[in-house]
Design brief:
By secondary structure, the protein is mostly helical. About 85% of the residues lie in helices and about 0% in strands. It is globular and about 80 Å long. The chain starts with a helix and ends in a 7-residue tail after the last helix.
Amino acid sequence: MESRDKIKKLYLTALMGRAKMFFRVGEYERALEDIRTGMMSSRKWGEKKEHADFLLWMGNICTSTGKYTQGIENIERARKIYRELKNSEGEIECNMDIAVIWTLKGDYEKGLGFYNRALRDGGEKIEKIAGIIYNNMGYLYWSMGNYRRALECFEKSLKIARKEKNLYSEAIRLNNIGAIYHALGEREKALECYEEAMKIEKIVGNKHGISRILTNIGSIYRELGERGKALSHHIKSLRLKEEMGDKKGMAVSYNNLGAIYREMKKWKKAEEMYRKSLSIAEEINLKDLMLRVCVNLGLLYLEKKRLDEAERFIKEADKIAKEMDSSSGKARVLYAWGRLYGERGNMKKAEEFLKMAGDKFKEIGDAIGEGEVYYWYAKLLGKGEFLKKAEKIFDRINHHEWKRKVEELKSRGGGDAP
């Protein structure tokens, strides 16, 4: 009997391990197959802790595919079982994962509430967990545009990683600190952090980490207007993701490359990259990225004056945003509609949608999105006060590429009422 119980546990452990592997490379359907099998088997055999583990991971997969309500439902079911079993670590993990969902939905205060609950429930006393919580709270403050608080949280999590001598976590947290310095416009400090993180990632042989840092460095060069260097770093990042079979990462890289080619006005290449990204995102049901790419394709076709095609992709993005109930997604779609109405000469509608987009970007703390809306407000509607608002935002975050665009528009008399 004891031997049979041991075999059951080993089987469930193996299923979970394989599901996590599929999850990491974006093979969500295959991960779901193993999770569902694990849920049925653990329930049948009365293995409550394992059943809660599978429910938790079902919630994580729902979250990654944009099914946020189902994600919360599954994780709440897992949390109830962990509480019955007096498994505090399981409860803490559930609180953390629910915080992630509220963050993705754009309700940052609820997200903070669940992270603080995780700390109160014992996470503060378990250093490894505290490091993760502070790191995730850093992401949340980052999303809110509160970069100083984000920096404080990332530095706390870095201190814990170094105390634990956890090189893997140290590299991730250095990378995050670099990203905050990047957001603050302190690019030299950002590059120092990225280089230090890169050295560690090479020591531990973490290709995912190396790829992530290459992407971040590429983003700095893109903002500096050095598109050749930006392309080089993003392409190197893509090659690593291809080696690892990381479909989610590949889709993100293709989207990044599409954005750079679009800025270079290499329309065919941009369209090719965006469509590759969308194809993979649809294959693995990555809703958030599908939304982003549909908006990007819509904007690409707007710039090419192919307005019917632009509308088709903006409509698709709108549909996905409503399914996901994502504040950031809604902001992007409102912005795209505003641009489309402007191109069609319906300035009343353009103003209405751009105003809603600007308010939404401001609410979620997306400074670049807010500044971009103000730029187009000025360009399409001839309202100079909005160009000043855009200029103020891009000066504050020291975004070279957008600062250049604002200066170009000013030099052409853009933003002056016709």
